[in-house]
Amino acid sequence: MSTQARGLNNFISDLRNSKSKSEESARVEIELAKIRKKFNPGDAKLASDGSNPSLSSYQRKKYVWKLVYIHVLGYDVDFGHAEVLALVTSKKYSEKMVGYTALSLLLRGSDPVMSRVIDTMKSDLTNAPSSSTNKKSNAPKNDAVQCLALCSLANISGLELIQAMHLEVQHILVSPSSTDQVKKKSALCLLRLTRTSPNLISGREFAPHLGNLLSQNQHLGVLTSVLSLLHGLALQQTPSYEILIPHVVHILSLLVMKKKCEREYLYYQTPSPWLQIKLLKFLQLYPNAVENHDLSTTGGGSMVGEEHVGQLIGVVSKILMETDVSDSINKSNADHAILFEAVDLIVAWGTSCPVVLREGAMKLLGKFISVREPNIRYLGLSTMAKLAQIDEASVEGAKNHQATVLVSLKDADISVRRRALDLLFVICDTDNAERIVDELVAHLVVADASIREEMVLKIAILAEKYATDLRWYVDTILKLITISGDYVSDSIWHRVVQIVTNHPQGDLQGYAAGTLFVAVAPARCHETTVRVAAYILGEFGFLIAERPGMSGDEQFRVLHQHWFTVDTGTRAILISTYAKLANLYEECRPLVAPVFAKSKNSVDVEVQQRCAEYAAMREAFSPEAVEDLLREMPPFEDKRRSALELRLLETEGENSAAVAKASIPSEVEQQRALLAAQMLSSGPIEEDMVNGMQPIEEQDDELVSKPSDEHPEDGDVDRAVGADPSGDVDGEGSAGGGMSQDDQANRVLVGIPKELIPAMRKAFSNLCTSPSGVLFENSMLQVGVKHEYVGAQGRISVFFGNLHSSPLQNFKVRVDQPDHLRMQMQGTQDLIDDGEYDSPGCTVATKTQAKLMILLEVTAPFDDAPSMRITFDTEEGEHHDYPLRLPLVATCFMEPVNLDPGAFMQRWKSLEGQDRECQEVMKLPPNAPEIDEKYMDRVSKIIVDGLKFGRCQGVDPTPWTVSGAATFRTGAQDMNGNNINVGCLVRVEANPRANAFRVTTRTLHPLCSKAIKNVSLVSIKLAM
Amino acid sequence: MISFILMVNKQGQTRLSSYYEWMDMQERVALESEIIRKCLSRSELQCSFLEYRGFKVIYRRYASLFFIVGTKADLDVRALDAPGSTAENYENELGLLEFIHSLVETMDRWAGSICELDIMYQLEQVHFLLDEMVMNGYIVETNKSNVLRPIDLIDRESKKTEGMFR
């Protein structure tokens, strides 16, 4: 037993007797100095590897162990590496052992000295005969040396070591000559190596080897390790290891059904619970394994053999139904460990799991969360939160236990309270939000500090998410501030301001102003209250100014009483509020002026600047401008992921149940979003946000007014062709689909009426969504277009018909070839002007046509239509120059995709984000017909037939939305030679009351999103 | 995976620590002392789990000794968005709780009833025993005979060599 060196024991005793931490560290310092001296005495010559050859084996081991001990105590040890290496390279097992243990504890893989152990380690691993020179080294001992090396390699796992040795480790694992002891260690060693450098192993090649290991091995230690390895590998390349499911199910069923297990591996009569857990964890990686399995019949398609699926479900039901509480706590724990893992498997299967099992699990968990045993209750709560997220029915199931969960919220144990809070968060919805939130708020009063911040954040999110009445939301947040204002972060109160500002409907703003006035009236209140109140009163105070006791100067007074107790950040907000009050109410000005005068000299730059600017504003600008500056703020942009959710993500990590929950918008939220859209279209910022059509119209007018003075004489060929100004001017503003082809038509043409423009625009839009039609027509020329597309390729035929009484001469067409299109053109001789030489053009006789055919392939997303310029002369001596645009838009290359609602929503969510999403609200002109179901039918027809999207009906709960999915096909290839395609989703939401539409597109490519949005808007308008 | 295993006395002094993920000494000392403080302050009636800075900690008390196991989601689950990531991918809590017990039982079989002093003065063997049961953060063996066999080997060898050094 007592094999430890006496010197080491003495040292440990000394440390143990130390009365204080400083005494201990002094003793450690002395010891370190002593060891340093022993290792490098100065006079003695060191060996080539840097170790001191005069140390005896006993001394060396002793000092290295001291270093290890010192390290364990939490002191840095940065010397002695040479001695450690000397031990590792020793031939003696006992020295090697100390060496390897010290190596794995003291050093990390990236340490440069590691390169010096590679050779030794390699020869130890491969069982090299070098150690057989030692007489005592017989077979089992080599096995032990191998284990040491493996263990150390696993613990260190430096990149250099891995590169040098991973092949050996793989070989040891699969070699039939390796002992069980070695196999189990090499499995975990390999796991560590693949962790450090993934893709070390090709799953397809390695999976069969693992299969052999699983099927041939009866040694449960080896199986446990191999399963850990398998789980790690399968996480990296899940599909490659799917073929091993039958093996795993087989082993599991032997353990569970037959209890086939060596006696030594029974843990309180349970066959190795840790192996069972590993097996179940592996199966969790394959959520589709039991898909389509029918409990009653055989048949149904799944990757795994039906037999195994049946077996697996049998095993899981047995675990679920037959786990009992036993007298031995150890037995009970072991069995429940397996049970919880089985429920996790059910969670992983999700909706594809037989309902019986899910309901059974929920029932069990319901029992667990009401027991007294804290461990079981803790796990019951946390597992139920996962189970509840499967679908509607499971949330309903969990909601039945709401009362029980609320009890756990008051538990003495913070761990349990956290889980209860998390579960409540998950089961909260519109029905029970008020109850749950009120309970949480009530509990907040007594909750201790460690959980308060988390609770406040979650309450704020729930209140916002499920508030049927936003006034309740405002009240709740106010309560939060009152109860624990210190934990209400800025993002929470900013959110209140945002929501109040963005919801002018109802009396929310007035209500908020009134409530906050009351809240801020007492002499003492939380600073956050002052901030919210200052902002809200500044914005919406005028709504309550008529109420008794709440006039402008009263508002100033209740706010200003806090002036001396708040910090400068709050003062800055107050100053802006004062400026707004002073602007609205004459009587406030004398009150505000002295504050500004005084604060102009504030040491805080922000306060100083605000005061100076507000004070100087009246002199510097006209009254209208001041009025404008101090008007209430426009609604905030609605970011899909609020700051609160981000905060939650920060604190809880991606995998948290709460985060997943928070990111799904609730029904109420969706309704609110619709209302917000309505509000937007009647709000003050209508001019610049409503739609993209308007700016273009303005632009057109501008250009139309110019031409007469720019082109006084006709027939100036060179200039008209060379100048080409307006064709590109609208490149930027082609939000409406590039319908401004006509502007230049006006500027050069004599006798083309301006009235033609709307008709031409309509013709262009029409053509974007229909296969053929007339693009342009006047008294001389008719341009017809026919176009068809297959995938990324298309064929466009353009016909130029002469309607004039005389031939059109020098008739030329020049088509712009943008980078994103590969084009081939052919047509009537001399028609095409490729810009290289001065072609004379062709002549189109009366009542005949010239033809142009374009074959094209798209190579990248784009959002503008290519231009086509037509020039010709008439016999009358007029020169005509029409810059048009081909109706070639992104949606031409769509291929419909039919998604089921779940898949649609999943993709929809995954494409969230600034540059992937495009959204625009369009208000129909006043003379437009009402939006009714017939209109919506036309809209959906346009999305399906015109834009070539696959309609996803299941996602549209009301007739007022249309959702679709499509793929944008390009001919460009990625590195692997596959064509690049862009998945596109579109959603049109109508608001009949406001007579407005909102179009949202989400694609992987910003240009695609923009282009689809534009085309949809134009087409919807067209459907009027 | 298991990130660390600590054996701590009721005064909060670490008697043995084994980390399976490299951590800077400073960070390690801070983490260790905070986790130990939390564990020691909990009552017998509370559950055996606590969450701290992304770790799920499972602990068990035996008279004056605390066994503390810290776990984290698997290394690559944290990086990858693996299909199983809806479940938190922690180690099974009750499983580890019983693993601690199995560890203690194994130590008992080796040293009679294990106590703080055994751990301090048999540092070498305890480390070795632990290495036989846990390797790089995963359970490798729970069969007590298998675990103890290599330790017997050292004992035998050290007896042979004893004469040479003492």
TrEMBL record, chain A:
<keyword id="KW-0168">Coated pit</keyword>
<dbReference type="GO" id="GO:0006897">
    <property type="term" value="P:endocytosis"/>
</dbReference>
<dbReference type="InterPro" id="IPR013041">
    <property type="entry name" value="Clathrin_app_Ig-like_sf"/>
</dbReference>
<dbReference type="InterPro" id="IPR012295">
    <property type="entry name" value="TBP_dom_sf"/>
</dbReference>
<keyword id="KW-0472">Membrane</keyword>
<keyword id="KW-0254">Endocytosis</keyword>
<dbReference type="InterPro" id="IPR016024">
    <property type="entry name" value="ARM-type_fold"/>
</dbReference>
<feature type="binding site">
    <location>
        <begin position="6"/>
        <end position="7"/>
    </location>
    <ligand>
        <name>a 1,2-diacyl-sn-glycero-3-phospho-(1D-myo-inositol-3,4,5-trisphosphate)</name>
    </ligand>
</feature>
<feature type="domain" description="Clathrin adaptor alpha/beta/gamma-adaptin appendage Ig-like subdomain">
    <location>
        <begin position="765"/>
        <end position="883"/>
    </location>
</feature>
<feature type="region of interest" description="Disordered">
    <location>
        <begin position="700"/>
        <end position="745"/>
    </location>
</feature>
<comment type="function">
    <text>Adaptins are components of the adaptor complexes which link clathrin to receptors in coated vesicles. Clathrin-associated protein complexes are believed to interact with the cytoplasmic tails of membrane proteins, leading to their selection and concentration.</text>
</comment>
<feature type="binding site">
    <location>
        <begin position="62"/>
        <end position="66"/>
    </location>
    <ligand>
        <name>a 1,2-diacyl-sn-glycero-3-phospho-(1D-myo-inositol-3,4,5-trisphosphate)</name>
    </ligand>
</feature>
<dbReference type="InterPro" id="IPR003164">
    <property type="entry name" value="Clathrin_a-adaptin_app_sub_C"/>
</dbReference>
<dbReference type="InterPro" id="IPR009028">
    <property type="entry name" value="Coatomer/calthrin_app_sub_C"/>
</dbReference>
<dbReference type="InterPro" id="IPR002553">
    <property type="entry name" value="Clathrin/coatomer_adapt-like_N"/>
</dbReference>
<dbReference type="Pfam" id="PF02883">
    <property type="entry name" value="Alpha_adaptinC2"/>
</dbReference>
<dbReference type="Pfam" id="PF02296">
    <property type="entry name" value="Alpha_adaptin_C"/>
</dbReference>
<dbReference type="InterPro" id="IPR050840">
    <property type="entry name" value="Adaptor_Complx_Large_Subunit"/>
</dbReference>
<dbReference type="Pfam" id="PF01602">
    <property type="entry name" value="Adaptin_N"/>
</dbReference>
<comment type="similarity">
    <text>Belongs to the adaptor complexes large subunit family.</text>
</comment>
<dbReference type="InterPro" id="IPR011989">
    <property type="entry name" value="ARM-like"/>
</dbReference>
<feature type="binding site">
    <location>
        <position position="38"/>
    </location>
    <ligand>
        <name>a 1,2-diacyl-sn-glycero-3-phospho-(1D-myo-inositol-3,4,5-trisphosphate)</name>
    </ligand>
</feature>
TrEMBL record, chain B:
<dbReference type="GO" id="GO:0006886">
    <property type="term" value="P:intracellular protein transport"/>
</dbReference>
<dbReference type="GO" id="GO:0012505">
    <property type="term" value="C:endomembrane system"/>
</dbReference>
<dbReference type="InterPro" id="IPR011012">
    <property type="entry name" value="Longin-like_dom_sf"/>
</dbReference>
<keyword id="KW-0472">Membrane</keyword>
<dbReference type="GO" id="GO:0005737">
    <property type="term" value="C:cytoplasm"/>
</dbReference>
<comment type="similarity">
    <text>Belongs to the adaptor complexes small subunit family.</text>
</comment>
<feature type="domain" description="AP complex mu/sigma subunit">
    <location>
        <begin position="1"/>
        <end position="72"/>
    </location>
</feature>
<feature type="domain" description="AP complex mu/sigma subunit">
    <location>
        <begin position="88"/>
        <end position="156"/>
    </location>
</feature>
<dbReference type="Pfam" id="PF01217">
    <property type="entry name" value="Clat_adaptor_s"/>
</dbReference>
<protein>
    <recommendedName>
        <fullName>AP complex subunit sigma</fullName>
    </recommendedName>
</protein>
<dbReference type="InterPro" id="IPR022775">
    <property type="entry name" value="AP_mu_sigma_su"/>
</dbReference>
<keyword id="KW-0653">Protein transport</keyword>
<dbReference type="InterPro" id="IPR016635">
    <property type="entry name" value="AP_complex_ssu"/>
</dbReference>
<keyword id="KW-0813">Transport</keyword>
